[in-house]
Amino acid sequence: MRTGFDAKRAVQNNTGLGNYSRYIIDILSKFYPENDCVLFAPKKKENSRLQTILSRKNIFIVFAPWFYRLTASLWRTFGVKKDIVKNKIDVFHGLSNELPVGIRKTGIKSVVTIHDLIFLKYPQYYKPADRIIYRFKFRYACRNADKIIAASECTKRDIISFFHIPENKISVVYQGCHQAFGIEADDSRRKAVVEKYGLPPCFLLNVGSIENRKNLMLAVKALKHIPENIHIVAVGKSTPYQLQVENYAEKTGLKSRLHILNNVCFDDLPALYQLADVFVYPSQYEGFGIPVIEALTSGTPVIAATGSCLEEAGGTDSFYVNPDDDMDLAKKIMLLINDKALSQKTIDAGREYVKRFSDKNIADNIMRIYRSL
Fold first, then answer.
1. Do residues 199 and 168 both lie within one domain?
2. Is the pTM of this model over 0.85?
3. d(CA 122, CA 100)
4. What's the structural domain count of the chain?
5. Distance between terminal CA atoms of the chain?
6. Alpha helices, DSSP H, located in 262-358
7. What does the alpha-carbon distance between residue 12 and residue 73 come to, in Å, rounded to a whole number?
8. pLDDT tens digits, residue range 156-184?
């Protein structure tokens, strides 16, 4: 089989959709080496995290023709169809919510991964123009794909609700995380990370873009109700919301207990997770919640929020709170920190739970979808 992939994010993005794109291409090319994987990317960009994948013999990459370089989005939306046909692709997979316009007319089967429909569920977090563009692209992809992969059961329900897509057209395939999170960092590595980022002895960890929807503010508010030796370390891309959180921390005397790290090297993340006492993820809404998987794989107990899909990511042995209840979050933090036996039980159960998100299981699930077409 020759499978084509929309590889814009795989080449150009270092987080989020870029991680997902590289992950899927990686596991499919690894576990099914007899198949060819053809990556279609608008333009070249140095990406060290893609180099290992590109070195495999069953990976090929196609860039936009020179006359599309200044309008790469046009090639990705329209012009790429000619290259897909030229490369004799059997199944084309839109890895980040989109498909080329007119893909059905080529006769080539198509799959699209829909990560979330948060822009429809919580429109206040998005600019009006972005909502209009996303709605057109996502709806078009859902209606024209031969098969849809939803990132979670929660996302599947949203696709059915907002776009009225038949349930039998949608398959839920979860995402795993990078294998690095399952490798225990040695003492020297941990010490180096502690010194590099100035980490406190006891801290909660939060990973993800520091934006309103991710709800870091709730975790900072919880600090008021727990001992002063417990800090919070937040890792992620900065947005204007970060300033709101910092201002609140300063006004409430919590500034010294809040550590925000905006430019953390990926190689340092596993040690950060493993050094944390508790991982807190009180997001208002998620399509799945990969940081929860990373935490469980790292052996860190998780407290996440109710209301979306995080129970799917964290399983029944993780802890959950209302995303507006800072007092309950504080109580659960102290429960895990004070009760070492409970914390260890949660860690062990989490490691067992995330086995269902193994690379092989996910690759097999996706390959079954391709073959069904």
1. no
2. yes
3. 26
4. 2
5. 11
6. 269-275, 290-298, 310-314, 326-338, 340-353
7. 13
8. 999 999 999 999 999 999 988 888 999 99
